[in-house]
Amino acid sequence: MSWETPKRLADFEPSSPFYGLAVPAEVTVSRQILAEPDPGLSAQTWARLADGTPLVTFERRARA
After folding, report:
1. Which residue among 9, 22, 43, 45 is least enclosed by CB atoms within 10 Å?
2. What local confidence, expressed as pLDDT, does residue 18 receive?
3. 46: closest CA among 19, 6, 21, 7?
4. How many Å apart are CA 35 and CA 10, to the nearest integer?
5. CA–CA separation, 7 and 16 (whole Å)
6. pLDDT per residue as tens, the chain (64 positions)
7. Three-class HEC string of the chain
């Protein structure tokens, strides 16, 4: 997915390991690969774009 206007990052939520880091204004995203849609995706998102689009997602896995 790509946009004509680059998107800014949203502030990191308290549940994210990135929480507390400042989001630099000069960081933008012009293109990304979207995660598979899933009802639980919101709870598995560590970083989002300012429009709410998931940017960094995670999945818990058992140790082998």
Report:
1. 22
2. 94
3. 19
4. 17
5. 20
6. 667 888 999 999 999 999 999 999 899 988 877 767 788 888 889 999 998 888 888 888 888 7
7. CEEEEEEEECCCCCCCCCCCCCCCCCCEEEECCCCCCCCCHHHHEEEEECCCCEEEECCCCCCC
Amino acid symbol at 32: Q
CA distance 50 to 57: 15
Given this model, what pLDDT does residue 9 score?
92
Of 54, 48, 53, 49, the C-alpha closest to 7 is 49
